[in-house]
Every structure is written in C-alpha cells, then in structure tokens.
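Question (not urgent): is this output format expected?
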Amino acid sequence: MITVEEARSLYEGADPIHDFSHVLRVLALAERLAEMEGADREIVRTAVLLHDVSRPADSDLALTAAEETDHAVLAGREARRILAGEDPAFVDAVVHAIEAHRFRNNIEPQTLEAKVLFDADKLDAIGAVGVARAFAYGGHLGQPLWGPVSEGYRPGQNNDEPHTAHHEFHVKLKHIKERLYTSGGRRLAEERHRFMVAFFEQMAAEVEGRR
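Got this back:
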C-alpha cells in the first residue's frame, strides 16, 4: 500500500491546481464519502493518492487535446506499475477508479469506489475552492481575467474567443452537480454549487458595471 508521504513525492513539480494540496483535499472528501456510502476505504484512499500522478509538470502545462483526455488513463497505467505485487483484484479496482475519475472522458465509473473518487475530485472543482482553482489555472496559462461566453462555445472550436474561468464555469463547472453519482456527493455539492453560481453572477454584474 502507498502512504501519504510516499504519494507526496510523486507530485513534485505538479501545477498549482493539481498539486498535492489538491490530492489532500480530495482525500478528505473521499474518506468522508466512503464512510457515508459504505465504500472500501483502502481502495478509495489508494486511488485518490494516485489519481493525478501522470499530469504534466508545471513547465509542461500546454497540453494537446489528446494528452489532456488521456491523463486519467495514463495515471491508471502508472498506478498499476506502482502497485505491482499487490493483490490483482485490488489493483484492478484502484486502476478503474483512477481511469474513470475524469469529467471529460467516456469511461463510466462502474464501482462504488470509482464513484466516490469521481465525486470527491469534482467537489474540489466547485464552490469557493473551485472558483479559486479556475482563476488560478487561467492566470497560470495567461488567460484573460474575464470574457463573454458566446452561444454554443466549445473549447478549441472558437479560436477567436479566449478561454477564461467564466468560460470554464459555463462549459464544465455549472454542470458538475448534475453529474455526481453518490447521494452524499450530491448533498455536499448543493452549497458549493450555490456559492459558485452566485459568485459568477456577482462578477458578471461588476464587470458590466451593473453593481
């Protein structure tokens, strides 16, 4: 089994949005959800600690669409290597949870443990922390602070429209609450979702001079 300190070393040089602080926040949420839902805590804990191990280093943030889509699968592959020698059924369960944790892919969580990891990871993307992460990531990539979102906007398909945290809210963040799998995750998402929606409404009003 992997310890927290062993996992910490695997995230050296990670970008500030997917660094080990993110892992620890997800771990706290996942352990809470695992207890609420009756999931196997060891599978959940191991999957959380390894779920972002194959994200690029801070200096390599400019990902291609294929690389970004594949990061969960790559992390699962790396987790299988790290866990070599453990019980194969345990490893398979951990790897599936990691591969299925991504919002933008077609791997559906099939186990309770995979659903717990998915929900915990997504809860860290909404609420006050989620707002902070969205703007931190945008600033890190040199994105504008704000921009209007055109109807039908899709990342990478509107080349003349810079992607901002506001765009990320409309494309992904506001839909997360509806995508969660566990009853506990959905309950925890309610307050975070309300705060996030209110924040973006307030910021839009301030940017437009209405408040």
